[in-house]
Write the structure tokens for this entry.
Amino acid sequence: MRTTRSGDAHWAEALRAASPDLVVLAYGTNEIADGMRYPLADYEATLRGLMKQVRAALPAASLMLVGPPDMATTAEGTMHTRPTVQVIVKIQRKVAAEEGWAFWDQFQAMGGAGSMWLWVKAGMGNTDLFHPTGSGGNQLGTWQYRALMEAFDKYKSPR
């Protein structure tokens, strides 16, 4: 997601103007849906570059990367996880650790491989095998909030 240098400067200025204490970046779902039409090394470099831009613009902000949800496929007549989901999650976990960002693993929170099909059957996943329903989204939001607050409580506790 590289823009021109003037575009980068404008984007950083807009981030600073918002003055957020926390930035949450959810990134990677579209790349999975696109079937990874570009090399994974490019994905990692693009993600890392974006995270560095956010950090440079907001050095005092807390930063969290949210991994993609499980996404199912109907290939071979079965409902299972698209192969690139776990690849993207692995890259994101690595880059988040290396860049000093918190990482929330939405894929694991859902139940890991094959979970989207179970979510669809339970009415929490959309029949597009990609998006949660309203109740599924509310559940994921609640889990993300709880994970964030647990980490904050741990951070605040005496060391």
